[in-house]
Amino acid sequence: MSGISTPRAEQHATRAAFFMPGFAVSVWAPIVPFAKSRAGLDEAMLGLVLLCLGAGSLLAMPAAGALAARQGCRKVMLASLAVMCATLPLLALAGSPLWLGAVLFVFGAGVGAMDCAMNLQAVAVERAAGRAMMSGFHAFYSIGGFCGAAVMTALLAVAVPPLWAAGGAVVALCGLAVFSVPHWHRERIDHEGPLLAWPHGFVLFLGVLAFVVFLAEGSMLDWSAVFLSEVRGVEPSRAGAGYVVFALSMTLARLLGDGVVQRLGRQRAVLAGGLLASVGFALVTLVPAWWLSLCGYALVGIGCANIVPVLFSLAGNQRAMPETIAVPAMSTLGYAGVLAGPALIGFLAHASSLVFAFLCVAVALLGVAASSRWLRV
After folding, report:
1. How many Cα atoms sit within 13 Å of 376 on the Cβ side?
2. Which has the closest alpha carbon to 232: 355, 102, 368?
3. How does pLDDT run across 243-264, given as a tens digit for each residue?
4. Count of CB atoms situated within 10 Å of the CB of 365
5. Which residues are listed as membrane-spanning (predicted)?
6. Spatial CA neighbour of 31 closest among 158, 145, 166, 172
7. What are residue 364's phi and psi, to 5 degrees?
8. C-alpha to C-alpha distances, 99 to 28, 87, 364, nearest whole angstrom
9. How many other CB atoms sit within 10 Å of the CB of residue 292?
10. What is the pLDDT of residue 377?
11. Residue 145 and residue 23 in contact, taking contact as beta carbons nearer than 8 Å
12. End-to-end Cα spacing for the chain
């Protein structure tokens, strides 16, 4: 680490690292309609092209862990940030499906590598502090997402060209990096054994739990408005309220989560979170009054908020596998849940109903709660 770094400076720099990819991804989201029009895509083609972002992320995460072991987190995070900053303006310029897909793949690789390296950084900072900090770090990813979406929407609303708006976002990211990069970890992470390996045992168990929780979060993102609109009969213009309640509840719960995890312990925090999220899905699906079911969306956000941060802490502190393999495995399997979630929900809804699909998620979250008894390191 840099000689001028202090524990407090490292903690602030880690929060900034989490803010950056959340901000970058949310800057891209409001540009999607412009990119769709510029590249001449229909809805089906857009869906295929958007998969490139997820593919880039999934492929980059394990490689980022191996590189962090050899080069240290700082170099990987700095390179990832450079990739995100270089590709954001290009996303506003892409004029063909092939070009947009290629840029999205590289952008996704930058986001995925940053996601992996920043969690390795967070594990080290939390370990040095000797107290729970992971929930607070993850909260800043959500805050970054809110800020990016709000700023970009405001700029585009006053007719700022997408390229200029994306360029302004890059300037903001670079300015934040100036103060953060000196306090990111630069040491190699030494361990015995291969730098890349398929997760097994306890690490695979953690990855499966992360998959379920990320699947639940992904179902909120992609299906909450559809559920309120098609099942509860809410006007489409107001159907986004469910996700807003979910996202705000999750962010607030993560800001307060470190204290909660410190008091309850990791096992009971996962138990309580899984139960709350499961009850939340049950309320959403079984309570007819849509305004009352919003309480269910809030419970899902509160319940899911601190489970994944706890799982990352456990992955970084277990001894079955090196953390540079365990943490990327968590990121990769979790992100796979986000990608697979909408498709699985859609398949179940098509085979039965959206209510049945949501209840299946509730049961899976009960399984996460029941599994907390084995979460010991």
Report:
1. 2
2. 355
3. 888 888 999 999 999 999 999 9
4. 28
5. 12-32, 44-69, 76-93, 99-118, 139-158, 164-184, 196-216, 236-257, 269-291, 297-315, 327-348, 354-375
6. 166
7. -60, -40
8. 16, 11, 39
9. 11
10. 58
11. yes
12. 27
| From the candidate CATH numbers 1.20.1250.20, 2.60.40.1180, 2.40.30.10, 3.10.290.10, the one assigned to the domain spanning 201-374 | 1.20.1250.20
> One fold for both 7-183 and 201-374?
yes
**Cα separation of 223 and 232, whole Å?**
13
Q: Which CATH superfamily is domain 7-183 in?
A: MFS general substrate transporter like domains (1.20.1250.20)
In this prediction, residues 162-177 reach a mean pLDDT of 94
Between CA 341 and CA 347 the distance in angstroms is 10
Residue 134 has pLDDT above 80, yes or no: yes
> How many residues are present in the chain?
377
Residue spans of the domains in the chain: they are 7-183, 201-374
Q: Which two tokens stand for residue 369?
A: 């709660």
Verdict on whether the full-model pTM lies above 0.90: no
| Span 200-229, average pLDDT | 86
Give the closest residue to 240 by CA, choosing from 302, 288, 306, 297: 297
237-248 residue pLDDT tens: 677 778 888 888
Residues 313 and 292: their CA atoms lie apart, in Å, by 34
Contacts of 139 (CB under 8 A, 6+ apart): 18, 251, 254, 255, 257
**Token representation of residue 157:** 């609303």
Query: What is the rounded distance in angstroms from the CA atom of residue 302 to the CA atom of residue 265?
Result: 17
